[in-house]
Structures are given as C-alpha cells and as structure tokens.
Amino acid sequence: MRKLDEKLRARAVAPELPILRLQRWSRLHPMAFGTLVGLLVLAGMMSPLLGFPANRALFNDLLGSGLFFATSLGIIAGFSRPVFEGAAQDLRELGSVIPWSDDDVQRASDALSRLTHQQVWRALALGFVAGLAHSYVLNLQASSWQFALPQFIATVLLWLAMFVTVPPLIMNALLFSSLGRIARPDLLRPSRHAAFGAAALRPALLLTSLLCAYALLFLGGENPLEGPVLIGVMGGLIPLVGIVAFPLRGIRKRIREQRASTLAALDTRLDAITEGDIAKADADALFQLDAVLDMRERVARAPAWPFDVDALKRILLFTVLPPLTWAAAAIVEIMIDSVL
Length: 340
Description:
Layout: H1 6-12, H2 18-26, H3 30-46, H4 56-93, H5 102-111, H6 117-137, H7 145-182, H8 195-213, H9 229-273, H10 283-300, H11 309-339
Helix pairs in contact: 1-5, 3-4, 3-7, 4-5, 4-7, 4-8, 6-7, 7-8, 7-9, 8-9, 8-11, 9-10
C-alpha cells in the first residue's frame, strides 16, 4: 500500500465511532464515562431485586451477571478512546519509516477511529442479530420477563458494542500489517519502528480485559468455558489473535529481509578487506575491518520484533492475566459458598 486507498480516504472524512461520539458528548473523561456506563448497567441488572425477595442463589446470579456486563461495557466505553487515539499516535510516529507523505499519514491516522455510515449501520445490524441469537441460545425466553429483560438488553448492548468497536480494531491491524510490508526498518535505531509493537499491544489490552471480565460469571455459578457463555469468550479471543498478529506480521518480515541484506553487504565488504594476508594489513585496513565487524555485530543483534523489554513484559502479562483472573474468581466463589 504505497498510497491511501479509497476506503481509507472515506473513513478519514466519516464521523467518529458512535461510542466515541457518545463519550465526547458526555464531556466526561473516558475513564469517568466508562465508570458511569458500568454503574448504570449494574443498576439495571440488579433492578429485579426491587420487586422480589432476595435469596442467596438469586443474589449471586444477578451479581455475577451484573458485574460481568457492567465491567465489559464499562471497559469498552472507557478504554475505546485511549486505544484509538493511541493507534493514531502510533501511525504518526511511523511517518519516518513508511513511504507516505505527511498529509497521507495524517489522513490515515484520522481514519483509525472512524467508520462510514454504511459500515456503522452494517455493524449495528450484525451486532443486534448476534445479540438476539445469543439471547435465544442462553434460553432467556424461559425466564420471567422481570429477569429476562435486563439480561436481554445487556446481552444485545454488549454485542452491539463489540461489533462497533472490534471491526475497526481489526481493520486498523490490517492497515499496520500493510504498512509493515513497505516500511524501512532502522536496524540500528529500532525505536523508530517500535510503534508497530505498540499498535498490537494496546488493543490487546482492551480485549484481554474483556476476557478477564468473564471470570465474574463464576460468582453466579456459571463457567465461562462451558455452555452458551463460551460463544462470548470465543467472540473476544478470536479477534484478539488477529489484532496482535496482523500488525507484527509485515514489519517482522521486513526486519528479517533488511537484516539479511545488510549482513550480506557487510560480508561482501569483509571478503574484500580480508582477501590478502591480514597479518600484513596496514593500519587503515585493520581500522576498516574493525569498523565493519563492529557494525556487523550490531546488525546481527538487532531485535527481530518491534518490541522493547517493557513491551515483552506486557506480552507475558496479557498471556497469563485471563487464566489467573478466572482461577482467582473460582477460588473466591468457593470461599463465599463455604462462608454462606
């Protein structure tokens, strides 16, 4: 992709994503907006307790599902703007290693947090259908409407939020993949292309947080790895793999190609310097030999991935966080049951 395609240009002039416009309209900080959304959802999910006498099983069930939906929708509402604005900043930082003009880089960065009206309506329609289908699989129609209605609304809202937020994240990941294939990685200054790594890790944090929220369902006695709930888990896990892998695929290949070609060129220079008897070489030849050997060692040690040490630590954290969270939630559930 040497130039912006028409789809990207159309996104650049489209409105912001609905969740971002709603947050901007509220005039709240993204984290405050996410907290407010979570509290409103939790209040709605716990509302059946107002009309029915509470028992332990009912309270635990409503609390588990309420905390799950409140946390999930709160995360999407609160973290979406930092994630999309961070992606735009990553793209601007890559301006020095991709063959795009400053205007094209700015247009592309503007497009990352936008979808055309047609794309938004398509996403909303698919999200609504997915929410209806998932509600049917959850067998909500078998429950009384006082309990089924909040669960149904929250399920549909979560699928709507996912379909409006996740597809642009995937589209952005594919864009970074395309840019990685035409980038000019700097082997001696890997920080110049490190934004490719940040572009993969930042949305990964969002989806990993959503996966961790499923652990809250343990409080209601549900296992996220069994039954219909697994549909939602897979709906977050599958995009997570693509969102992490796509931005790294192109630049990883370019780094390997650049390193191989640079090492081959340095080896050619070494062959030319060492054609004769090195022991009889003059000071200038030895100086050149030392410089080429030093450069070759630096190039050979250049990172093959666009990550720094802190980024690698975050990758490890994202890998172990969901299973640890789920295990902790299961332990808490057992402790609560033993006390009650």
